[in-house]
Amino acid sequence: MTTTAPEKKATRPGVAVAARLFGGGSATVFALLVLVFVAILFLNPSFFEPPSLMAFAKKAAPLVVLAVGQYLVIVCGELDLSVGSLVGAQVVIAAAVIDGQESRTVPVLLLMLAFGVLVGLVNGLVVTVLKVHSLIATLGMMLVLYGAIRLWTGGAPTGALSEGFRQVGREGIDMPVLRQLPWALLVAAAVVVVAVVFMRKPFGRTLVAAGDNEKAAAFAGVRVWWVRTIAFVLSSVLATLAGVLIGGYAGVTAQVGEGLEFTAITAVVLGGVVLGGGRGTVLAAMAGALTVEALFTLFNQLSLPSTIRPTVQGLIIVAAVAWAARERRRPFLPQS
Amino acid sequence: MRRTRVLVAGLAAAALTLTACATDTPTDQPPGGGGETEQEQSSDGEWFVQAEYDKQLAQREQEPQGPADQPWLQMIQPELVDTAEFKQDGKTLCFSNASVSNPWRVTGFITMQQQVEVLKQAGEISDFRVSDAGDDDNQQISDIQAFVDAGDCNAIIISPSTTATLTPAVETACESGVPVIVFDRGVNTDCMVTFIHPIGGYAYGADAAEFLVEKLEPGSKVLALRILPGVDVLEHRWAAAQQIFGDSDLEVLGDEFTGGDGAKIKDIVTQYLQRGDVDGIWMDAGDGAVAAVEAFEDSGKDLPVFAGEDELSFMRKWKDTGMTAIAPVYSNFQWRTPILAAVKIWKGEQVPSEWVLPQEPITDADRDEYLERNKDMPSLHYAKFGGEDLPGFPNAWKDR
């Protein structure tokens, strides 16, 4: 299975890194991504005009951010189902508190960050201290957030986001050729770069170790509960960031954030990151997110009837993950 | 041990992921109900019944009877029935609600509660009991059963969650002898005293489509944005639009399901714009209409001719941009009518067996008037909510 690596990877030096990437069953997602892009190219060459690509990047950015967050949780052996609800909650809170007033933008962003940290901390501690399986703990959080927001707003969001708040998700730097370099793209790229660096630091490696073999990691002196709690906090903070991007992109609707947790998990799994932890890379998770978004675009270009899209999407995902599992060689194991 | 856990987690996640891809549950049901009782799908699998379509289109032209400044009391082609048998002194009103899961229903339910408040003060209603089924048919069936079993409801109002499944429950309520009032979506029985609804989905879809046909040059391209498939009210709106587009010279580029999600709407519209011009947008419900308009703005394209809904966020955008648009209305004020009907029935006054309320779109001519009336209202509020004369206005709707 060979594949031309996307440009993004070129920024990272070293063949060893690439080999490591492909060793983790991640090749499939890059191949699939290229395949989907080629298919789109044949259907609609204008998609590859710079402004169109930038529009795609703007749309895909929130999912990339979410996928990175979900990756951090999955790689240490857990799941976070609360991110979709959290995105929705954050956007609704922001709209209600800002209520269209520009001056409140920054304080509200800080409030959202604090709320995100709090949610992540609760998720993490319920999983690690109370020993509730993360599937249940975060499912509970998802429902709590969903219900609490509806209770608070009486069922439908109120208020409005300020122009300043929407800037990041909607606007960009105007320039020739691209027409506009979206802020969202820069944010997503920064998140990915930071995450890649982070995963190569000791803490990132302990995260993977905790997911790969909890006991061995504990014997090696890793405070597993702490590492996992941090992963949940990071996931919630990134979901908050994704909320800022999505709210900026499309404003407030009653449905904002719905189902995003599954799209994010799909993206990560598609990237060859193994549920249960211990395997997979951030870049592959990012590629997974891009692939999911590219698939949506492809379906659109194909004018596939909306009703059959979920089925096709499901088949492609299962096939891709099965293929990646077949291809998987010895995974990259830290400290071994 | 670990292997098992991983396996279970994996399987669960896979199952969840796949179900997440499946069609959404009624949680994001349309901000509308269903006016239509009979038939769901005709034999050829299309959601179109010519007779009902013709009837609704004709009803748009008819002058409704009743006070013009109180559209929630107006009626089109009423066949009044006698209610003397239900005349009574009891004043306990019970309401089985399908849900308050979208802004349209939230707005309506507030109006309903405010109407009840007025009648409580006047001593016409003593107790108002509400059960909310959260879009769950089974829950609503047991809610209705609970009202019947309690035996102290003097009238039961039902806003059904779905048509066919709720029919037996409504029949049970009728058999218990209390007057039953159904509104919004219908059921397949006529045992209730009155069935209250605006003209219906065909009229809504036709209002929107006719506007596009009128305002656009022949050969123009129209994109249809829909919430989700398989819900009768929404399918009727689209079926009517297909009829009208089919007879016109407009080209329908496609119809896309969006779930009413702004991000998805913006993405889809942006993609259509990358492939070519879009001259008109038809929507089966206005949720997320603003995101569609923004897609044009952000792509640097001329704004399309637009058929949205009377949701305020859209109407405000319409005014700000000065675009050519119409706001079809699925009369939200219908939530007041069942309460008033119940009181009428208790007094033994006549009510129509099918209470068809007026359903008039908001156009350029009256847009500003409606925006002015609703100027303090939140953006996901519906302009024709019809509660301006209630004492709780505006705070009850403003601070929801």
What's the Cα radius of gyration of chain A? 20 Å
Order of helices and strands of chain B: HHEEHEHEHEEHEHEHEHEHEHEEHH
Shape of chain A: globular
> Count of helical segments of chain B?
13
Biggest interface reads:
A-B, 58 and 58 residues
The number of distinct helices of chain A, counting runs of at least 4 residues, comes to 15
The CATH topology of the largest domain in chain B corresponds to Rossmann fold
Task: Give the end-to-end Cα distance of chain A, rounded to a whole number of Å.
Answer: 26 Å
Helix fraction bin of chain A: over 70%
Q: Which strand order does the major sheet of chain A show?
A: 1-2
Instruction: Describe the global form of chain B.
Output: globular
Query: Which secondary-structure class do the elements of chain A indicate?
Result: mainly alpha
Q: Biggest sheet of chain B: strands, sense, closure?
A: 6 strands, parallel
Subcellular location (chain B): Cell envelope
Domain Periplasmic binding protein (chain B): 95-349
Organism (chain B): Actinophytocola algeriensis
Protein name (chain B): Ribose transport system substrate-binding protein
Describe what you observe in this structure.
The complex is a heterodimer of chains A (336) and B (400). By secondary structure, chain A is an all-alpha fold. Chain A has a single domain (54-326), classed as ABC transporter involved in vitamin B12 uptake, BtuC, CATH 1.10.3470. Chain A has 15 helices and two strands. A two-stranded antiparallel sheet of chain A has the order 1-2. In chain A, helix 3 (27-43) runs antiparallel to helix 15, helix 4 runs parallel beside helix 9 (183-200) and helix 6 (105-128) runs antiparallel to helix 12 (224-250). The longest helix of chain A has 27 residues, at 224-250. Chain A is globular. The two termini of chain A are 26 Å apart. The model of chain A is unreliable at 1-12 and 20-24 (pLDDT under 50). Chain B is globular, with a radius of gyration of 22 Å. Chain B folds into two domains: 62-199 and 331-362 and 373-395, 3-Layer(aba) Sandwich (Rossmann fold), CATH 3.40.50.2300; 201-326, Rossmann fold (3-Layer(aba) Sandwich), CATH 3.40.50. Chain B has 400 residues and is an alpha/beta fold. Chain B has helices at 2-21, 50-61, 103-121, 137-150, 163-175, 201-215, 232-246, 262-275, 289-298, 312-321, 337-346, 364-373, 395-398, and strands spanning 80-81, 92-97, 127-132, 155-159, 180-183, 194-198, 221-226, 251-257, 280-283, 305-307, 325-326, 351-352, 354-357. Chain B contains 13 helices and 13 strands. In chain B, the strands form three sheets. Chain B has a six-stranded parallel beta sheet with strand order 3-2-4-5-6-13, sandwiched between helices. Chain B has a five-stranded parallel beta sheet with strand order 8-7-9-10-11, with helices on both faces. The interface between A and B is large, with 58 and 58 residues. Chain B: InterPro entries: Peripla_BP_I, SBP_2_dom. Chain B: Residues 1-22 form the signal peptide. Chain B: Residues 22-46 are annotated as: Disordered. Chain B: Belongs to the bacterial solute-binding protein 2 family. Chain B: GO terms for molecular function: carbohydrate binding.
